[in-house]
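Memo to structure team: turn this sequence into structure tokens by end of day. - J.P.
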Amino acid sequence: MRWAVLVYGLLQAGLAWSMAAPPSKQPATHSVHERADTFRNPVIYEDFADNDVSVGPDGLYYFSASNMHYSPGAPILKSGDLVNWEFIGHSVPSLDFGEKYNLTNGHAYRGGTWASTMRYRESNGLWYWIGCVDFWYTYVYTAKDVTGPWTRAAVLPGGTCYYDCGLLIDDDDTMYVVYGATDVSVAQLSEDGLSQVQTKHVFSASDVGKDGIEGNRMYKKDGFYYILDDHPGDITYVWKSDSPWGPYESKILVNAIKSPVPGGGAPHQGSLIQASTGDWYYMSFTWAYPNGRIPVLAPIKWEDDGFPSFVADEAGAWGLSYAAPLPPKSVQAWTRTYTFEEETLGPEWEWNHNPDETKYLVGIGGVALYTATVTNDLYAARNTLTHRIHGEFPVGTLIVNYDSMADGDRFGLAAFRDRTAYIGVHRDGDKYTLAVVHNITQEESAWNTTSNGTIVATVTELPVDKTLWLRASLDARASGTFAANFSYSIDGQEYIQLGEPYTMYTNWAYFMGYRFGIFNYATKELGGLIRAISFTSA
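Reply from structure team:
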């Protein structure tokens, strides 16, 4: 029904599909790390934090990550070799956690899904995702297939928050969840994994002389139970016991180790994973803004005392390169062109909060974005479509037709975060202005908007067919200039820079890194639309 209504709306709007025919569909491309015998860190140069990596029933490796207020929630990656990963889906189809997640009654910036856990349970053939939302409710989602459909199976009673949790399915099929910040507890779940049977405090940060610990994961090896967690910012701890309920003793795995990414923070939180060879690895992430928190991998060794030790490079740092865990497996390239020929978006695309499903259409050679909100505030506008930036110098190029904009509409391509800049078109009456806007700003407590930005450059001579190529070129290195340059083209060949570079913001408080954002909102009344013909992430 939604499809029919939107198609009718497109026809009524008189969108000139022929004015900018989409490029031919790009063939599927694949990539692997360059050499078969070694790999280089980071293993993914994108923002995938709080990883929980485990082995699936097919012997492949699955990576669950955080994406907070972006929807769908809880991204899932897959790999055959622990090094080359591809995006396959999400565990949380929609952030159905209240109106604020729809941007209809407040907002949920920095809420949503974070530091959750995902595991496959062989006894019933189900995948489980467990996570705490808004520091109050713990949700359980399950699926027969890791790519979905995922459904909400349970919500634990209010106040039962499995903060920074890790799921262990024991040899006897008992399900345990470790969780907590500062004070860490272990809960035993019911036989179906959908409710809590009991919970017990097992240790505290003060046991190691610290004021906080978090990022909990739980494992079992050689009859012993292990909990992996961290002191925020520097130290990874491993805790060991012969019972899930303790008592636990601890050792440090890494302490303020130098990142393999220049300018990146010390990796200290993540997952332990055993490869099919029997060797073990530590998947962590480095805080490397403006890109975000990006995954790094290193081997560990098990010592005679039953604790793991970290394999550093010759300088005692996290190695830039190590021997490959397994023969490399080909995966789809992270950078490519999207021509939106299918009727659904791929998992690489996530909305800022839940979208209004009636205000967009995918297919027919593009994504039609109707205005979904009347506002002057980009952060309050629904249906901003986002894509992670990739690599040190990411470039996003949008081909867009805007001949069905309404008076007062604003659309653009943004370097999107809590400090945002964009290049886009403003319509005021019969006047269309291409503008670069800098420094749309949120404050860092309640995440309210404190500035709608400043127009720093404009162009008013625009093509008659109302089709443009918009480009954002970023220096996303943690050791770089943080510059975001915006340019445009009327033919896809020659690009003209508009405005001075914008300096992207690198504070950690927002947690998520910069993304490319495609937005379209109204300042007067709803009804206008733009069509994203294609998008290239390079």
